[in-house]
Amino acid sequence: MPNIVEFRNVGYAINGRALVENISFSIESGETVVLLGRSGSGKTTTLKLINRLLEPTSGGVFVEGKKTTNWDPIRLRRRIGYVIQEVGLFPHFTVHRNVALVPSLESWPPDKIDSRVRDMLTLVGLEPSRFAGRLPRELSGGQRQRVGVARALAADPSLLLLDEPFGGLDPVTRSEIQKEFRGLQRRLGKTMVFVTHDVREAFILGDRIGLIKDGNLIALVGVKDFHNLDHPEARAFLESYA
Ligand SMILES: Nc1ncnc2c1ncn2[C@@H]1O[C@H](COP(=O)(O)OP(=O)(O)O)[C@@H](O)[C@H]1O
Ligand SMILES: [Mg+2]
């Protein structure tokens, strides 16, 4: 079984400026890797290299053993769930239609789509009979984020990318949704790459934490080992936690 995701000496530069430099790591099936770094450190860039929203300017990114540039980008993106802070729900689509998006594009039979949408809404704690018919503007921020997670899971992708998905939520809702998400991770056993600048969130959700600074991966270690890292950036994050 190849690694689900592997970066081999990956760089990404625009106009001669490196946003990501010489990154190498791999992710095993079923684990959650949190990419932790300050704003502007290159986290989103790294994530977009996985689903080929960006292509490396050096090195290679491999998904399920195949270079992203050898994947059909549409196929690749439909196989990878993607959750972002702005959620990106279609405002004129109901919750049901938003969650059904990829299964519909994949031409699943309507009754299979319908039962899948109901299952996914239930999974993220939204009662289908109450929420399926609503428009995104008829939901709270936390509910919209749940719909975003349901949508990303709908086509049963083996890999999920999450880019600061809970960043816009108030602290109480955020803390609740983190705990629920932790439960979801355990039940689903999906491989996840989760981006955050919040070390507390990294500790709650990560199996391993990848620390990124100025486009470089400084360390990728288990949560326990993160406390022992002897690097000023790691200490800066740990101090922010204390
Ligand atoms: N399209 C772009 N053109 C030029 N610079 C960019 C572009 N996208 C991002 N950057 C810069 O690259 C750096 C890393 O960005 P990003 O990966 O979005 O960081 P993060 O997600 O960690 O906040 C930042 O300095 C950002 O301003
Ligand atoms: Mg970002």
Topology at a glance:
Elements: E1 5-14, E2 17-27, E3 32-37, H1 43-50, E4 58-63, E5 66-67, H2 73-79, E6 80-84, H3 95-99, H4 101-105, H5 110-123, H6 128-131, H7 141-153, E7 159-163, H8 171-188, E8 191-196, H9 199-205, E9 208-213, E10 216-222, H10 223-226, H11 232-241
Parallel strand pairs: 3-8, 3-9, 6-7, 7-8
Antiparallel strand pairs: 1-2, 1-4, 4-5, 9-10
Helix pairs in contact: 5-7
Residues 43-44, 163 line the site of magnesium ion.
Shape: globular
CATH topology: Rossmann fold
CATH superfamily: P-loop containing nucleotide triphosphate hydrolases
Count up the domains.
1
User: Cofactors and ligands present?
Assistant: adenosine-5'-diphosphate, magnesium ion
Strand content: 25-35%
**Helical residue percent?**
25-40%
Low-confidence runs of at least 5 consecutive residues: none
CATH architecture group name: 3-Layer(aba) Sandwich
Average pLDDT number? 93
| Largest sheet: number of strands, sense, barrel closure | 6 strands, mixed
Structural class, from helix and strand content? Answer: alpha/beta
For the CA atoms, what is the radius of gyration?
18 Å
Cross-sheet strand order for the largest sheet = 6-7-8-3-9-10
Cα distance spanning the termini: 40 Å
Tally of DSSP helical segments: 11
